[in-house]
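Worked example

This section walks through a single chain of length 143. The input is the sequence exactly as stored; nothing has been trimmed or padded.
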Amino acid sequence: MRQFTAAFFSILFIFTAVFFKIPSALAGETVIRPVAPAIGYYFCTALEDPTESNPKGKAYYSGAFMVEGDASKALVPVREAYVKFLQEKYAYVQDPANFNTMITFTGVSSMDMAVSTLEARVNAGKRANPEGTIETGWTYQAN
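Given that input, the structure is written out below as tokens.
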């Protein structure tokens, strides 16, 4: 009876493993499961200090875009590309003392949410500071 019970559970395990595709590993091996890259939907806001000609300052808004990977690493090239774009098109000046707060990223869980959140921010900005709210239309394209 003991041999029958052991054989029964062995067959049951094999059947379950095959049927449900349970990954198995030999002693000392690690089962590696593919992990989907993290995907985030973002838009950028770049602030520029007030000047005499624009006492409320300026806020530049990018378009919405998607980024894959760890945000702390994936957004570094986005920041660099956005600053370069703003400098070339708008003569944007970034205060080195406020480097980390001058460009912000708003991240949400879907492209639709990114677009609607961006639209709400731009509309609020235009009501408060029409001359200083600039929609750049820029979006990030990974190389």
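What to look for: The chain has four helices and five strands.
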